[in-house]
Amino acid sequence: MYANNVNTSSASNNYEYSDDHIKSLGEIARNLSENGQFIPEVYCSKEEIREALLGYEKKFNVVLSIKSSIAYTVVWICKHSGDYRVMDREESATKRLKKSQKIGCGCYVKVKTNKLGHWLINEWEGRHNHPIFKSRSIYSQYRIQPEEIEERIGNMFKAGLSPSSIFIVLQSENIKNITKKDLENKYFHFFDLKRKIYV
User: Fold this and answer.
1) For a surface tag, which of 32, 67, 113, 143 has the fewest beta carbons within 10 Å of its beta carbon?
2) Is 11 or 117 the better-scoring residue by pLDDT?
């Protein structure tokens, strides 16, 4: 079942099945003129387009990464674009336990400059071949915590709380963009640093 053609009556609560993300990407790329024709949205710089795309990514919980970038053209693709490639014979001979995130998604954005040096989105595909997760804890870049939260986590470690206990505390405070695995990693990193300080 794909994010763009699923009957919402049978949709899982974990996924977003609206087509709003497709419409939103189109609105970033073009405007409707007074005579009813679509015209390209003009951006002053590559950075300005990137800011617009970052807003789109955060709003709909998708991740775009740069596939190619040269002086006058940049292509962004979905994080799930491409297919997993086996890197060595040893791996091909054994079953890979971790599921690859590369599943051939065709969503992409291609931007170019015009003769005036302005940046335009001249090609894009907004449809994904996978469900769009509602949870912002799916992707690591959306799980970066503010400094004050990191400090609180460190203080809870010092007080003897386990990663699981801290996870429950943070969830009760509606801090949802963190996983137990994140806290376990922070736990081992915290005490590893502490050991190095006293060595």
Assistant:
1) 32
2) 117
